[in-house]
Amino acid sequence: MQAAADPVRSVVIVGGGTAGWMSAAYLARRLSHLPIAITVVDSVEIGTVGVGEATVPAIRDFLAAVELGEPDVLAATEGTIKYGIRFAGWGGEGHGFFHPFGLYGVPANGVAFHHYWLKLKAAGHDLPLGDYCLATQLAERGLFLPPSSQPGSDLGVFNFALHFDATKFAHLLRRLSLANGVAHVDGRIVDVTRGEAGVRSVQLADGRTIEGDLWIDCSGFRSLLLGEAMGVPYVDWRHWLPCDRAIAIPCRSAGVHRPFTTATAHDAGWRWHIPLQHRVGNGIVYSSAHLSDEAAEGRLRATLEGEPIAEPNRLRFVTGHRAEFWAGNVVGVGLSAGFLEPLESTSIVLIQSALERFVALFPDRGGDPRLAATYNRQSVLEFERIRDFILLHYWANRRTGEPFWDAMRALDLPESLAERVEAWRAGGVFVRREWDTFQDPSWLSMYAGFGLLPERTSPLADQLGEEELLTAFARMREAIDRAARTAEPHADFLARQGRRA
Ligand code: FAD
């Protein structure tokens, strides 16, 4: 069944936050050979959500796709390097572990490193996993090394992401988009007119009307087109992920730029610490059923490491997604399509993969339901995979005696996550699935970080004896250490990007 429609001649992006300008910059590049006009409509009056400062390494692919150089982005957004996330207090007060953007160790005789590590652990050798991961070492020592400088060995396989000022990032993308022919209209949308294919036009408060063939809804939590105009319902995941509020308070930077995000647990959620060059992004995420807004703000203020430089930004959200991400001629990108709480900094990568998927399925005519169906199936899977990974952080917690955390440990896991945990428990096996954002090393960092170990070690690891393994592990540790010693201080690297460090 093919939708009867004319060729697509115009794409209108509603919203000028991170999602809107990422969409504009990406589509302007990828569709540049087609006679398609791209317009962004947003409202300065309404503003943007104003948070979203930490990314995952895929951001580097996005920057390459839109032809932005990393040094330019670091300079324009007061950005810093991120090698992963430090989780503090999730396994109880004083406990911590690191989720790195890199591999652990090297396999031997076709057997994955973690099986040998588990075997040594079972034999009483408590070897810190982070000693076998270059990204962890760079993060903990405050160093910078570009991934490409360590070729040829799995030991050198790591990557980095960026922290950046979200407003400055949107401005940078806006400049780029306008230079690449995107039109911009500043106006508040007050009405949406529907047609046979979906949305036909939007009316602005000043009386102007904007028409379009395809619509990208980047209007934020309000979901003006996908949710309101198209009436697509929201799939609410609060029964799994009950945190529903956040407060952000940036403060002046004390000049220490740790190359990682910190996520510190508190009695009803967690706090983030994101170091930028000019300031530190701080925020508290919490369950409103377990903590009042006043108490949450007090808790955040008590932990700030510098002087606040803005009023608190108070946010409410519901973890979940729209039942359809693409309905008729409307595709939701960013918060309008769904939101997974920011524990693993996944919203921006979801924007990016939505755009990649949309271009891969780009219809030369208006909304084709067959393409939309594929898009929707893939989008739901991607959201579910990330939800499961985030949920593992909560479910595996070891904070006892706090109602929020006790309830999280007692949750009935979704089948998709329960199967992963059982396979790990039974034999140290990672279950891999289509549209996984997080790969084996990420799952290993969580299982090991929470002390969730398999019931028995793998017989595959028995092909190497304990002494042989200890020698091989010592060699790996030395190689990682040698590589880390070739790195420069993160602060020096930032200074070389032409900015203060
Ligand atoms: P918004 O920024 O809200 O933009 C919406 C746009 O729509 C605005 O331009 C607005 O003017 C426009 N608009 C709305 N209504 C109208 C109207 N009637 N007429 C005209 N224009 C209109 N993501 C990460 O990847 N990493 C993180 O570390 C991270 N941390 C987060 C922390 C919190 C507490 C929250 C809530 C989110 C976080 N996110 C994070 C998510 C990230 O902030 C968003 O994914 C990202 O900013 C994209 O937002 P958006 O562009 O979809 O929406």
TrEMBL record:
Gene Ontology molecular function, alphabetical: monooxygenase activity; nucleotide binding
Keywords on record: FAD, Flavoprotein, Nucleotide-binding, Oxidoreductase
Residue positions binding 7-chloro-L-tryptophan: 82
Pfam families, sorted: Trp_halogenase
Binding site for L-tryptophan: 344
Binding residue positions for FAD: 16-19, 335, 348
Keyword set includes Chaperone: no
Keyword Transmembrane helix on entry: no
Protein name: Tryptophan halogenase
